[in-house]
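Feature request disguised as a bug: please show the residue count (392) next to Acyl-CoA dehydrogenase in the output. Example input:
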Amino acid sequence: MTDDLITGDLYAYESLLSADEREELAGIRDFLQREIKPRVNEHWEAATFPMDLIPRFAEAGLVGRSYDTEGSPRGSRLFTGFIALETSRVDPSMATFLGVHNGLAMGSIVNLGSEEQKRRWLPGMLALEKIGCFALTEPHGGSDVALGLETTARRDGDGWVLDGAKRWIGNGTFADLVVVFARDLADDSVKTFVVEKNTPGFTATKMEGKYALRTVQNADVNFEGCRIPAGNKLDGGNTFADVNRVLELTRGGVAWNAVGCQMGAFEAALAYAKEREQFGRPIAGFQLIQDLLARMAGNVTASLGMAVRVAQLQEEGVFRDDHAALAKSYVTSQARQTVAWARELFGGNGILIEHDVVRFFNDAEALYSYEGTREINQLIVGRALTGISAFV
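Example output, currently without the count:
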């Protein structure tokens, strides 16, 4: 293992990247450590978003790297995975902001939009001049949203009219482009639309009292007679299977975020164990502390290995829905365990924001639940294993 690899990468998976990718990743890591990390706790505690940093994310090369777009060549899946890991290792909230914009919103337009729609929206999104969000989850529909989608769309002359509500919409309070999924009243199919900021009939209200990913601005979104042009329906978004094409790819991204979250907690715990003294010596010298550290290292390493294999399967073009589901379910479950052990190592200091670990501890709970709960993802895997669906 070379000295410039991150502490938590015990098996040196980063060395699988090309030399050019490693050099660029080092620059991204430096940007995150230097410009983002010093401000993370302040914004997490206040539940505010550092809007002034948004242009810097684009300048640092953190936007659109999963796609072949003009001016932004696609990075390898392994490289973009490590970008997600590095971001989440510093702050899972920032990783979630980028995941929503890059993966869910841009991914919907890249995969479901026409060439004209891509030309219309992607350049501004690549420059982070236009922020995207993804409106699928509803107040009454989470895991069962595919069957119970209540937001409706009806064709009216030269446009569409949307009515309904969405909940838990990350970036929703300040997004310029809202990718919305609604049931067409004419044929009962789920279609995909883009609603632009300030469209009459569209409102977004910040959700309060959220104690995970506090920097992420989640919104309750409402559509009341919200009229949009016909050209704002994504050409390739005509069924819920089309929605799943986007979700399949982004679930792999959540696994990378969960690796970064637990790696950040593990590294914070390791540093603390070396400096914290009790009974006249650093607590890192006690057997029970070393046991906790070794357990955390095992979880991080196993999770990173799974995420790396996910990237390889994506690159080979053989990635399946059950691959995504297993990675999301397993890695986020391991993350919960790792951050709990990290918090335990800190003792009482583990609940102080100044030590970072309580932020990772809380944020792991959100990663565990969003983009498919553990139970739903386990059933996707179970269906693939047995050939029998156990969904209700």
